[in-house]
Amino acid sequence: MRNARIQWQGTKAVLKRGSLILEAVRFEHTLFALPFAYIGMFLAADGLPTLSQFIWITVAMVGARTIAMSSNRLIHFKEDATNPRTANRHLPRGLLKPWEMGLLMLVSVGVFFFAASQLNTLALILAPVAAVYVVAYSYAKYYTWTTHFILGWADAIAVAGAWVGVTGGLDPEAVVLSFAVAMWIGGFDIVYACQDVDFDAKYGVHSIPRRFGVEAAFWWYRGMHLCTTIALLAVGIWMDLGYFYYIGWAIATALLAYEHTLVKPHDLSKLQLAFFTVNSYISAELLLFTSLAVVI
């Protein structure tokens, strides 16, 4: 009985540790980015992909994003401890050790490479390139104010990767769709960086808000999201997608417009609502209507 109790306590400790690790890398945000990988998958397949493709693209996507988040937490460990906005994260608070985050990153690399190997040769060849990019982007803000574009393309890898996973190649349509995602993510990252303008100036972090000011940053934000809507429309026209796709595009455009009413240069109080709620709606409904357009 005593041994069983000890084993149960050990199991609970492991589960609690695992839960902390998932919280630290915002694992739930994988579901936020995953719809765009699936959009690329459905369009590349021009319908339903095989079950094997669906499974391994999902595993690869989760692995790649976990590589990005775990490395980001490690790289910015000291900075996060200094910034009041991020000082409550798991590593600065001592809830997790750096070696645990490093181990998670290494495991995720293995998972990502294995998933890529189950798709096709090109996916496996490009996997190291993608892994290096999603780690390296975390250093960009120490050197250039274009960091938001670099982050956007890191997320856009999901679309291109899914396309390669299905077709074994990368068509021009996939590049346009990836561009739409890069502008969407990068645009919002600009607004997110507005929270840290003063801290970034002291710490030597580069960003568009720091370089051009918050007011100008919002014009970049608007312009990049305009590029997103145009690129998404171009994909629909280029691929001759059905009316379901255009319904999804119209809803996404309306939601983007609504998102822009929530945050203002002098008022970022609704930033979390815009980022987590509205953006999740955009990705989910685009996936729904895109899948209907290619399946029906």
Give the secondary structure arrangement, pairings included:
Elements: H1 2-24, H2 30-45, H3 51-75, H4 77-82, H5 90-93, H6 98-117, H7 121-136, H8 147-167, H9 172-193, H10 197-203, H11 208-212, H12 214-238, H13 243-262, H14 271-295
Helix pairs in contact: 2-3, 2-8, 2-14, 3-6, 3-7, 3-8, 6-7, 7-8, 8-9, 9-12, 12-13, 13-14
CATH topology heading: Tetracycline Repressor, domain 2
Counting helices, strands and paired strands, the structural category is: mainly alpha
Number of strands: 0
| Count of helical regions | 14
- SS strand fraction: under 5%
The CATH superfamily label reads UbiA prenyltransferase
Secondary-structure element order, as H and E?
HHHHHHHHHHHHHH
> Helix share of residues?
over 70%
Provide the low-confidence segments as ranges.
none
Backbone shape: globular
CATH architecture: Orthogonal Bundle
Distance between the termini: 58 Å
Radius of gyration, taken over Cα atoms and rounded to an integer in Å = 20 Å
How many individual domains?
1
Oligomer: single chain
Most strands sheet? none
What's the level 1 CATH class?
Answer: Mainly Alpha
Averaged pLDDT, please? 87
